[in-house]
Amino acid sequence: MDTYGLLRFIADSWALLALTLVFMGVILWALRPGSRPLHDDAARSIFRNDKKPAVDDRRGEMEA
């Protein structure tokens, strides 16, 4: 078997299997038990300053 054929065989079979396992591992890691509070915190992080705006530290630049 030539080098190209060997590399093609590895890419077609073993690399596909490895990438599929990595993909499934990432999905299972994201959906693991106990991760809901982390995901909820990340989802609400954009609204943290919704009631009280963030302080603008550039007030002195605008007056000058």
Describe this structure in words.
The protein is mainly α and 64 residues long. The chain has helices at 3-30, 36-44, 59-63. The protein has a domain at 19-45. The protein is elongated and about 70 Å long. The model has no long low-confidence stretch (mean pLDDT 84). Keywords: Membrane, Transmembrane, Transmembrane helix. The chain crosses the membrane at residues 6-31. Pfam families: FixQ (PF05545).
Give me a quick take on this structure.
The protein has 64 residues and is mainly alpha-helical. It contains three helices and no strands.
**Low-pLDDT sequence parts:** none
The helicity comes to 55-70%
Backbone structural class: mainly alpha
Taken in chain order, the helices and strands follow as: HHH
Mean pLDDT: 84
Number of helices: 3
User: What oligomeric assembly is this protein in?
Assistant: single chain
Distance between the termini: 76 Å
Q: How many strands, which pairing sense, and closed or not: the largest β-sheet? A: none
Overall geometric form = elongated
Number of strands: 0
DSSP strand content: under 5%
Rg over CA atoms: 25 Å
Protein name: Cbb3-type cytochrome c oxidase subunit 3
InterPro entries: Cbb3-typ_cyt_oxidase_comp (IPR008621)
Transmembrane segments: 6-31
Keywords: Membrane, Transmembrane, Transmembrane helix
